[in-house]
Amino acid sequence: MHHSIEIDNLSFAYPDGHQALDNVSLSIQPGEKVALVGPNGAGKSTLILHLNGILGGEGCVRVCGLPVTKDNLGRVRAMVGLVFQTPDDQLFSPTVFEDVAFGPIYQGLPMPEVKARVAEALAAVNMSAYTDRVSHHLSSGEKKRIAIATVLSMRPEVLVLDEPTAGLDPRARRSLIGLLRDLPLTMLVSTHDMLLVRELFSRTVIMDEGRVVADGHTVALLQDDALLEAHGLERPD
Questions:
Q1: Which of 52, 171, 209, 236 could be bridged to 195 by S-S, CB 3.0 to 4.6 A?
Q2: CA atoms within 13 A on the CB side of 234
Q3: DSSP-derived secondary structure for 5-67
Q4: Containing H/E element for 96?
Q5: Structure confidence at residue 78 (pLDDT)
Q6: Nearest to 216 by CA among 9, 10, 26
Q7: Is 137 helix (H, G, I), strand (E, B) or coil?
Q8: CA–CA distance from 54 to each of 6, 12, 47, 138 (Å)?
Q9: How far apart are the C-alpha atoms of 144 and 148, rounded to whole Å?
Q10: Burial class for 211, CB neighbours closer than 10 Å (0-12, 13-18, 19+)
């Protein structure tokens, strides 16, 4: 069986010379939910953007056994659902239905299948009643759910989220945590929300200065005060 995500010796430098990733290796099994943490500038977002080919560095990235190369980008992007930190980056259509339908339509699916995918994705995020709503009039928490639905409609095998709880009020945050817990997908979640990490993920990967500096059981890592302090993290209360 293939790993859902397999990264071998990945390095990446931006055009200004900043080395954002330095020989990163990481593998995630099917069905695993993994937290990715570290200080700002650690390379977390840069790493995520390699998983569906938005960025391409030196090394090897495979998703569900498929190398992330130009020739495979269409298939890779169907398998990796990437949810950005800011939902407005993903919601650009007049209605919720059109936002969630965009991916399946782009894939060339017939309209009955598109409608079925939209209904399935909205049901998965408990937003079925929002089909005809205007995305930009929704709350932050509702927008996050619709953004997740836009990738679920593609039926991905891996869900990758960047700061999913950022900007949410306590109720919306709690609701989103419940949603992520219930989704039966392989998940990699980049976050500064250490309470979320403790509550939802059995495995945590810590990055700093473009490298993986720790990878292990969340409970053990969160009890290592010296490790957390060395990499700008705090143990959740």
A1: 236
A2: 5
A3: EEEEEEEEE-TTS-EEEEEEEEEE-TT-EEEEE--TTSSHHHHHHHTTTSS--EEEEEETTEE
A4: helix 96-106
A5: 86
A6: 26
A7: helix
A8: 17, 12, 10, 28
A9: 6
A10: middle
pLDDT digit string, tens, across residues 95-106: 999 999 999 998
Give the model's pLDDT for residue 68.
93
What per-residue confidence (pLDDT) applies to 130?
A: 95
Q: Which residues of the chain have pLDDT under 70?
A: 1
Measured between alpha carbons, how far is 191 from 70 in angstroms, rounded to an integer? 28
> Measured between alpha carbons, how far is 133 from 130 in angstroms, rounded to an integer?
5
Supply the pLDDT for residue 160: 95
Consecutive H or E run containing 204: strand 203-208
CB 188 within 8 A of CB 164: no
CA distance 44 to 21: 9
* Strand ordering across the sheet containing 5-13: 19-28, 5-13, 58-63, 66-67
Report yes or no: 192 and 167 within 8 Å, Cβ to Cβ: no
What CA–CA distance (Å, rounded) separates 218 from 216? Answer: 6
